Amino acid sequence: MKRALITGIAGQDGSYLAEFLLGQGYEVHGIVQRADLEDPAHRLWRLGPLQGSLALHAPSLESYASILRILEEIEPEECYHLASRSFVSYFFDDDLSTINTNVQGTYHILSAIRDKVPSCRFYFAASSEIFGNAPETPQNEDTRFHPRSLYGISKLAGLHITRNYRETFGLHACNGILFNHESERRGFEFVTRKVTSSVARIKLGQIDKVRLGNLEARRDWGYSPDYVRAMWLMLRHDTPDDYVVATGELHSVQELVEAAFGSLDLDWRTHVEIDQHLYRPSEARALCGDAGKARSVLGWSPKVGFGEMVRRMVEADLEYFRAAKDA
């Protein structure tokens, strides 16, 4: 039985990856925050019934010694590093702990793998935010990086650290440059889940309006379970490398709104209010990924399209808020 370690296992991607690996017969270990273990009902809700099949640990990613101890204890054959401070802001008043957490944690894990389990295959969750204002579209593995947020800068640093450990120390270390991916387990602070949850609440008569910003903003949105499958395929491949994972399709926020309201036969124009305060002062260029390399080398392609993803999210939110109402 293969052993895998997932940092950020309590997040959207981590929970789907844990579910996927368990289905493949893995022994799955996860790194969570200590506060998560003290309040699992609320902080580990995405893991749900999986918790009984997982081994959860709470070391600090900012402590090399604690990461080293976990790797010595588990001796994983695969490590998926998904944990990070993930809120993207284009203002540089972000707490610099974004840099410390994302960069230092990546360095500690790679260093510990090199020292204790050098045969362990490593995956780093990079992000399309490393492209920022890229000079061309769509973006692929050879596109010049131009991050516009501290989050994007930290992810770019992690990508280069991962490449360095691969090229200098011979680790089987891969970077997944994932474009936006959503699901029923997305946080409510993201526009996709804000829209789908609002549609569900409007249908149930709990609210009547949702306030949104720029409806013309466009993103390359995929479905999270498809993307965690790409992570696994990267580590199964004999040669470690870097891969863009994306749908290659751009959709506007208005298309998201139309699909979400339309799935419940609602007229979005009746319920959407535009709030200028929700506009970004400088909207990043539309990032659209070219996943040709992942298709040709890994045999990966997305299975769930944009419309089906939105429908699933709305239905899940409808069930969630209906159950909460009846509780």
What is the secondary structure topology, with strand pairs?
Elements: E1 3-7, H1 12-23, E2 27-31, H2 34-38, H3 40-43, E3 55-57, H4 64-74, E4 78-81, H5 97-116, E5 121-127, H6 150-169, E6 173-178, E7 181-182, H7 191-203, E8 210-212, E9 218-219, E10 222-223, H8 224-236, E11 242-245, E12 251-252, H9 253-263, H10 268-271, E13 272-274, H11 292-298, H12 306-326
Parallel strand pairs: 1-2, 1-4, 2-3, 4-5, 5-6, 6-11, 7-10, 8-13
Antiparallel strand pairs: 9-12
Helix pairs in contact: 1-8, 4-5, 5-6, 7-9, 7-12, 9-12
Task: Explain briefly what this protein structure is.
By secondary structure, this protein is α/β, with parallel strands linked by helices. It has helices spanning 12-23, 34-38, 40-43, 64-74, 97-116, 150-169, 191-203, 224-236, 253-263, 268-271, 292-298, 306-326; strands at 3-7, 27-31, 55-57, 78-81, 121-127, 173-178, 181-182, 210-212, 218-219, 222-223, 242-245, 251-252, 272-274.
Percent of residues in beta strands?
5-15%
Describe the largest sheet.
7 strands, parallel
User: If classified by CATH, what would the architecture of the largest domain be?
Assistant: 3-Layer(aba) Sandwich
CATH class of the largest domain: Alpha Beta
